[in-house]
Amino acid sequence: MSIPPLMTFQEDFLSGKLITKEYVHFSEIDCPELDIWIGRVVRSISLEFLHEILFTILSELLVNGCKANGKRVFFSEQGLDLWDEKDYARGISLYKEEFGHHRKRVFSSLEKSNYSISLSTMYKEDFIEFRVRNNAKILPEEKNRIVRRVQASTKYRNINDAYRESVDNEESSGLGIVLIHILLRNSGIPNQFFELVTGEDYTEVIIRIPKQLIPKDSQSRIKDLLIREVNSLPPLPAQINKLITIAKKKDVTFQEIATEAEKDPAIAAEIIKIANSPLFGVHKSIVSVVEGVKRIGLKNLESIFLALGAKKILNSRYAKQVLVWTHSFKTSMYVKFLLEEKRKHFQLLESATIAALLHDLGRMVLLSLDLSQVNQIRVLRSDDNTEISEWVEEYTVGTTHSEIGYLISDKWHFPEEILDVIRFHHKPWQCKSRNNILCQIIYLADILSNIGKGKGNYFTVEPEVLDYFEIHSEKEFREMQDRFKVKFEEHREEYQNLFI
């Protein structure tokens, strides 16, 4: 699959242009670029949680289209009439064997035929549309089979339930349609967003992903609750603001800052703890505030004070703050490992590691939604699932933790570089300021630190970011992640209580 440059792809997609890829057949070698293609679509519209689900659905549909076209070529080669019931019954088991054990031979025959399949997507007002089409008329038996699978899917809660029952004794694609409906339903997308369209010379499956799962007025009501929650946050503590003001003064001395910090024993203790943390490398332990201020450095003090102020307010208010700080510190350390290893933008090392500490502030608000609000979301989605993933919740609410975090950090007058990181750490290509590179660094470190939680892999990373950091293969990416994981484990005890 030939993929255009990132900005061209996103501009075309978001402007409503139809983006299409043609295949003669679809196989494993096409999967990596399909993964990249889907990643660009979902990242454009903040539906990252659907990446793997859409990949599974679309690859399944493409394979099924390939099988259907291959069946037509095979029957012709065998001198069998596809539309004759007796010939169909005699030939289908032979074709199942052929496709299962001699797929390359089927693909070779397809390359000499006029059959093809296509995948297209379009950005519309209320939904994102995906179409998988093959240029062959569907057989009555094939259509009946799909209808039966759609009906059968309603009784299965998950794919394991479907496997326990034999849903297809003749063709291996029987579970595909069931799988698609289960995946869509478990993502909160009801069955009416799946459509089969047929004509005299084509068969097409349409998947529509709605931009919202609950009514606009309900979504707006929940979003307003979140905004009111942000507006209700108190200003940063007066002593923190005073320290930030002093740190910004020209010709300020380390001793002047230390003397002011020592007026609040809790702040003084935090400065010493942070200065001794892995954030600032492996050093001899320091015990005085002035030494801590020197080690942190004047250019980093404002951000550190902001982090301490955010910690004081958020930790007292939200129950899920431990989860967020733990991930943020891990991301911060991965930023450090990345820049040390790649030796790119090494001058940004300290500012990037500190910005990474603050990149996920908005998650505390979303993860700590009042229980009544969460229940309201479940009722509105008709969702019986007791656990809602973070991205699904954002999808439902109609806002993201990046947007909520930006509102918080803007309220507290964070500097531009941290505002940009909070707002664009999942979409660095949308940052048009000088902080674009900073956002790219934290974007990549965030994904690396989240691997293992089902939140990313080599193919979910924007290829242009991988190229920039000279990561040229999945093997290189995995090896880097393994190295970082080992290095991080060495500091686990040190980070455990840093911001908790």
TrEMBL record:
* Gene3D superfamilies, per the entry: Hypothetical protein af1432
All copies of the HDOD domain together span 233-428
Q: Which InterPro entries match?
A: HD/PDEase_dom (IPR003607), HDOD (IPR013976), RNase_Y/CdgJ (IPR052340)
- SMART domains linked: HDc
Native organism is Leptospira limi
- One Pfam family of this chain: HDOD
What the entry lists under SUPFAM superfamilies is as follows: HD-domain/PDEase-like
Name of this chain's protein: HDOD domain-containing protein
Residue runs in coiled coils: none
